[in-house]
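okkk here we go again. third time trying to get the zinc ion bound version out, last two times i messed up the smiles copy paste (missing a bracket lol). double checked this time i swear
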Amino acid sequence: MGLFLLIEDFDLKLFIQSILSKIYLLLKNSYTFLLGSFNGGLKLIKLSNLLGFIILFFSFILVFRRWKNRIPSNSISSKECIKCESLSNRVKTSFKSKVLEFIFKLKIRKYQCGKCNFSYLSVKKKQSKS
Ligand SMILES: [Zn+2]
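finally!!
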């Protein structure tokens, strides 16, 4: 190396320049590579999150469908209080049960007993036309 430097002194600057530019390119490349893989990793994480979310959503729906299938179409004789079996009044259902009604095609009615003030939900499957 020393000999090389002595003999070809003129090329030294070029040599250093080329080495520097090569190092610079290498750093730049590795930087963009790292950045790219970092971004790719982020995208991968987002994708897996999305996939996980989708899987979770579908399993949620499946679980609810199973749960729905377990409900007999006339599960509760709705107008009698579960506790004291006296007549109860229909009251307004909550927004949440309305959403559930819509998503799972159920009939959710809320009743409140006039005698013991006990309130309960009556859940029925919507009658399908088939
Ligand atoms: Zn009651």
